[in-house]
Amino acid sequence: MPAGGENGSGAAFARIEALGARIRSLLPPRAPLPGGGAPSPAQAAPASFRDALAAATGGEGADVPEELAPKIREAAARHRIPQGVLEAMVRTESNFDPRAVSPRGAAGLLQLMPDTAREMGVVDRFDPDASLDGGARYLSEMRKRFHTLPLSLAAYNAGPTAVERFRAIPPYDETRRYVERILGGISDGTRANFEAEGED
């Protein structure tokens, strides 16, 4: 039996039930139709479950440290990346720790490798402003090449050569988890905004 036993399971179930109740409270009410009858699914449903879940759990930006929020906002605006995308990337890459270093040598808020940092003009990968600017610039370049958010994120993580070789998200567990985690942390609207910005 997993740690926590039945009490742990009961507490987890209670949290799930509470979250479900919160999500239901955010959904639009079912409006009565003229002459009676039930509303159509289109009238009753939210834009997406992900949007409702984001609203229920605090949404994008809920856990961004106060001192980093304006820096993320500015870097995102400068490179026309939706703020929610950049926040989700920083959360996934470094958990908002500007001193984070990976076993492979990536460093800073957006875990830039040395060669990528040089290409993006980043001298100090541990400088939050420089890391955010370099990472946002690099993601913007990946958008120009791959157009969609999933492929751009895959290229950011695994490199553009891998995405070009497979013509899809590469079949690497780390890359697939990376893309799924970031997409799971943003709304459908944020994803659409990222892709729309790349069409100009």
Description:
- With 200 residues, the protein is an all-alpha fold.
- It folds into two domains: 5-45, no CATH class; 69-197, Lysozyme (Orthogonal Bundle).
- Helix content is 60%, strand content 0%.
- The chain contains eleven helices and no strands.
- It has helices at 5-26, 41-44, 49-56, 69-78, 83-94, 114-119, 128-146, 149-158, 160-166, 173-184, 188-197.
- α1 crosses α3 (49-56) and α4 (69-78) packs across α5.
- The longest helix has 22 residues, at 5-26.
- The N and C termini lie far apart (54 Å).
Q: Topology, pairings included?
A:
Blueprint (H helix, E strand, L loop, with lengths): L4 H22 L14 H4 L4 H8 L12 H10 L4 H12 L19 H6 L8 H19 L2 H10 L1 H7 L6 H12 L3 H10 L3
Helix pairs in contact: 1-3, 4-5, 4-7, 5-10, 7-8, 8-9, 8-10
Give a concise summary.
The protein is an all-alpha fold and 200 residues long.
Provide the CATH top-level class of the largest domain: Mainly Alpha
Number of DSSP strand runs: 0
Biggest pleated-sheet summary: none
The CATH topology label of the largest domain is: Lysozyme
- Spell the H/E element sequence: HHHHHHHHHHH
Q: Separation of termini?
A: 54 Å
Class per helix and strand makeup: mainly alpha
Poorly predicted segments:
1-9, 30-59
Percent of residues in β-strands: under 5%
Question: Assembly state here?
Answer: single chain
CATH architecture annotation name of the largest domain: Orthogonal Bundle
Helical residue percent? 55-70%
Q: Give the helix tally.
A: 11
Number of domains: 2
Kindly state the mean pLDDT as a whole number? 81
Q: Which radius of gyration do the C-alpha atoms yield?
A: 20 Å
Shape label: globular
